[in-house]
Specification:
With 87 residues, the protein is mainly alpha-helical. The chain has helices at residues 2-14, 27-33, 38-62, 67-82. Helices cover 70% and strands 0% of the residues.
């Protein structure tokens, strides 16, 4: 079991995040598709959220959005990229 979790963790960290290649796919949906659970899912979600924040900050800069508008834009963008939390 530990080897399975460890290998899932390694795959989740090393594989590129597909959520930005497909705008309709969210981090949560990707984690579900990959059947991640436990530590592997937590690690994947943290990395995916970090990548989404970087992507959204870049998008805000490209659109020349600054200040409070940038914060609002980035917050919504990250929320959309991460998706609804799975129960």
């Amino acid at each position: 079991m530990r080897k399975l979790v460890l290998s899932s963790f390694v795959l989740a960290v090393l594989l590129p995040v597909a959520s930005f290649a497909e705008p309709t796919s969210s981090c949560t949906a990707s984690a579900t598709e990959k059947k991640l659970a436990g530590a592997a899912k937590t690690s994947f979600m943290k990395k995916c959220e970090k990548d989404a924040a970087a992507f959204c900050d870049t998008a805000a800069a490209e659109k020349k959005i600054y200040g409070a508008a940038k914060n609002s834009f980035t917050k919504k963008c990250v929320k959309d990229a991460v998706g609804a939390a799975a129960s």
